[in-house]
Amino acid sequence: MIQELELKSSRGTDIPCTITVPSCQGKMPLVLMAHGFCATRHENGTFVKLAEKLNAAGIATIRCDFPGCNDSKEDHLFNNLENNMDNLDTLLKAMKERFDIDETRIAAVGYSMGGKVVLHYTQRHPEIRTLALWAPAAMNGLAGTRGDLGDPQWQARGFQTAQKEGVFLYPNTFDDRIIRLGKEFFEQVLQSRAQDYFQAFTGNVILVHGDQDDIIPPDTLEAIAQSANPKANFVHHVVHGANHGFGAWTHQEYQMDELVEVTADFLIRCLK
Fold this sequence. Notes:
Blueprint: E1 2-8, E2 14-20, E3 28-34, H1 46-56, E4 60-64, H2 81-98, E5 101-111, H3 113-124, E6 130-134, H4 152-165, E7 168-171, E8 178-181, H5 183-190, H6 194-200, E9 204-210, H7 218-226, E10 233-239, H8 253-271
Parallel strand pairs: 3-4, 3-5, 5-6, 6-9, 9-10
Antiparallel strand pairs: 1-2, 2-4, 7-8
Helix pairs in contact: 1-8, 2-3, 3-6, 4-5
């Protein structure tokens, strides 16, 4: 079953969601999906494909648009780590209420900035013991990111402007949109301890990235991978020739397929 719906957040906002639930009987594992910065809950079709593969294996999934993204009616001004985690809380609560979810088998997938979100989310929900991180912004703060987001001077200017004027207008990297960023975005992301949380994580985790990543450089991602906890069931997979979009931006769908395949195999092994 695939269901499109809106769930009400604790902030009183409507969260556009997609639920995929298998027809099998009994308790089901669950995978939460967190998209990247200014992206959508479908992630160029990769989240759709992953949900289909997991559904066929008897694993339920739910994904949403974060504030200001895609079908969300919220202002992007309210897109930050805390509000994104609040959305995930709403999703998790709804799935537990509506379906027979096995609370010992809950996983999260995070793409890019979504990777930072889910690493922080493990601190709120330590029962999540399986993660899939796609080209994750899993660094502390934004150190090691290419472009403006990784520039300390730009960060300081953006934060100061958002504090003073209530918003910082950011020209998006991928298109001609102007993205509204609030002071909370800067406060929370710059204080992020995502790599510390990654290093401390002792569950199941797969980290996948391209060796041509043009947003979070391969050197940054390799260093994150090397910091994995030795007690974790850790898999590091590199998609050769792929940039940050895993082929979605360059019409190389085989790279997207490889990303989905290795992730689905890992999650199915860990959750079934």
